[in-house]
Structure formats: structure tokens, C-alpha cells
Specification:
heterotetramer; A: Ubiquitin-like (UB roll); 2 helices; 5 strands; globular; C: alpha+beta; Aldehyde Oxidoreductase, domain 3; four-stranded mixed β-sheet; 9 strands
Chain lengths: 83, 83, 162, 162
Amino acid sequence: MPLSVNTLFFASYRELVGASMLSVELEEGATVGDLVQELRGRGAPFDALPAEPAIAVNHTYAMLDEPLGQGDEIAFIPPVAGG
Amino acid sequence: MPLSVNTLFFASYRELVGASMLSVELEEGATVGDLVQELRGRGAPFDALPAEPAIAVNHTYAMLDEPLGQGDEIAFIPPVAGG
Amino acid sequence: MGDARVIHCSVGPDVIDPIEVLSQVGSDEDGAALLFVGVVRNHADGRPVSGMRYDAYLEMAQKELGEIAGEAAEKLGTDRVAVEHRTGELEIGEVSVAIAVSSPHRAQSFDAARYVIEEIKKRLPVWKKEHYQDGTEGWVKGAVPPGTAAATGGVAKAGTTT
Amino acid sequence: MGDARVIHCSVGPDVIDPIEVLSQVGSDEDGAALLFVGVVRNHADGRPVSGMRYDAYLEMAQKELGEIAGEAAEKLGTDRVAVEHRTGELEIGEVSVAIAVSSPHRAQSFDAARYVIEEIKKRLPVWKKEHYQDGTEGWVKGAVPPGTAAATGGVAKAGTTT
């Protein structure tokens, strides 16, 4: 059964991708790293996303080996600049 | 010509001495150390003042070898506790 | 939510009143209170700035700020931490962040307030776009959040915005 | 006077309004402002306290606070330091000291505000008498000012009040 996740892009990544949200289908058991690879494999503009980006899964920072679940919210987080 | 200085006592020193101000006559060329010695030599309650106190001469902290001038204001400063 | 143990914590577009933030902390036990105020300044790296836009990943920023505030409360030894971070378009002199803490002794207040602002800069999913006086604009160079591939794997590659 | 280079500096019996002190600093150049507030707390070394009396060597305290503020301004790189220290009888929760600073970047503001309060505790000729809830009272154990015989010569002997 395919896995559907919502991918969010913020700030410079949103400008780069040209969208703030994208629904992506992945194979069951896919990880954050698989999602990044799948997107970058689509070519421009996605191949300009870093291969090792900062990612948050359901509002918590995660590494590339984090497994994904149905309906997860995966955010691509450019370097942050609060304060 | 004798030297006349005004000596001030604050907080716990004021309570110890029982006065907040005292005029003292010293010999010309006297230092802070001479003033301390002269007072402690008077016996109780002055002999309870420390032999090496914190002293301010005309609103500036001074060591015992500081020379005194006519009309100087010499303050005995107990350990401070501002803030 | 990580902010259960602190007095107040919010991220959003409302104007920040630092005095109101400060007024939320304090107690008869406390001998020290500290208020930090971050303000949009008129220059950045030598370039004249006319304003700033703050973007945020709002739901996550609220959660992350709560966790930061909770960690500061542990340092503080009290729950008296109040913090607000603003989003949207800000003019020069407008308050972007206010952090108030109070504690029995001063050292804890200084440490806790400093911790909150430093962690905000490291971890809070917020981004600033500077508007320069010459009419151009640009994203402020940011920090890579710890606990991500960007921090541990490819800092050099991913640490700069594309 | 040492306070020529700072915005405001005073010692005296007037009630302190921390907000008013904070409002004196700040500038379009500044990205950070910090306010430290010292408050009379209800306990000291585990004993319940009902109030506090602040005595001062007023003329010297004003001069010394000006010098401290001036030194902080040097650290800050701006003249934006405002500080007030109160004297007289204070109740629990009343403000004894307020220190406000502002600067282009936050590190300087934290360092400068911390410097002012630490130096006040070391050097300002002010003394506190605590009123305990059991009706007794006592002078708060203080610090020996640097640059005196008590500090360099006989610390052990002169470092305690008689």
C-alpha cells in the first residue's frame, strides 16, 4: 500500500520550489531520506534542494533514517533565523 | 599647622561608633592609616573598627598610605551590599 | 506541548508589548527579573535596512518555543518564563521577540534569558527577509538546527541557502 | 562625574519605574535591549523577610554608579545605559535597582547589564538591613570593595562586619 505524505517548503525553499505544499506518494517503509531522494530525482527545481537538508517530521526535527507514516507532515527547513 | 578632616561612619560602623560624623585633628602630612590608628587608639568603641578598613577619601576608595588634606571627607565603608 | 511548565509562550502576528510580557513573571520569592527585547534595527552587515518580514512554520514554532522555554525554566528553577515571537512585516524599531524571566537570584535569570534567545536563533523555524533601503531584499543567513542531517552530515553543503 | 557618557544614572529614595528606565534606552541602530530589575524578596538564606532598608553614602554612590555605568557603556559600544538604585525602606516586591541597556547586537547588552549589577554589588557604597518576620533585623553580609586596605591587606580580618 503506498504511503502518502504532505511535504512543506518554507522561506527560500518555498521560493526555490515554487510551492509551499506538495503531496508525495512513497513506498511503504519509506524514510525521510527516501523522500528527499524521490524529490531530487524529479530534476529542476527539486534537484536544487540539499541532499542532506534539515527536515521536521510532524513538527519535530528528524534525521534521514526516520521512517515515515501515512499522512505525515514533512517540512524542509532552510537555515533558521529567528529572534 | 594641624589638619582637620571630617570622618563619616555608615551602616554597621555607624551603629558601632554611635555617630555618623566626627571631626578629627591630625598632624600635617597624616595619611589614611594615621587617621585609622588615631581613632583606634582612643579605645572603645573605636578600637572595634578594623585596622585595615575600606576607606573612601572625597568619594573615592583609597588605601592606607593615601595622604590627607585640609577638610577632606574620610568615610569608613563597611562591606557593601547594593543591588 | 513542551510549554506546560512555563507561564506564557506564543508565536504569531500580534504586536508584542514587552511590558506586558514582563508583567507576567515575578513572585514574592524572586529577587531578580530580566526582560530581553529583540528589535528590528536599521542596518545589517553594514547595509541600510528599511524593514523585515518574519516567516514561520507556525505550529512547529509554537511547539519548539514551548520546549525552549521549558528547558529555560529548568535552568531557572521556576516556571516564570514568558516569551513571545512575532511574525509578519515589521518596521524598524518594532519588537520581534520579548523574553521575560524571574528567579530568586540573578544568575539564573541571566542564564535562562540568554538560553532562550540563543536557542531561538538555533532552532526556531522562523526566517527573516530583509528589505534594504535600495529596494532589494534578501533572506537573512540562518543557522542549521541541531538533530538534522544538515547539522550532522553535510553542514558545508546544506548550511547555506540556495 | 563618571556618568557623562551614559543616558541616566541616579541613586535616591524615589520609587523606581523599570519601564521608564527601559524607555530611556534604544535607538534605530539597536537590535537588542535588556532590562534587569532587582526586587526585594521574601526570604534570605532561608529566613522569612518582611522588608529591607537601603542605606547609602549618597554623594559617593551617585559618583560610583556613574563610573560603573560608564564602564558598561564602553563594553556596550553605545551610551545607552540607564540605571537607578533606590534607598530607604522597601517592602517585599518593591524595585531596588533597574538597569536598562541597548546595543546593535545582543551579546553586548547581556554583558553590559550583567557588568553593572555585579559591580554594584562589589563597589556601590550601599548597605541593606533586613527586617525578619520574627521582628529581628540584621545587616546583609556584604562585599569588600576593591582598591581598599580591606581588600588587599587584611581581607580575613576586615571582610566581616564587626
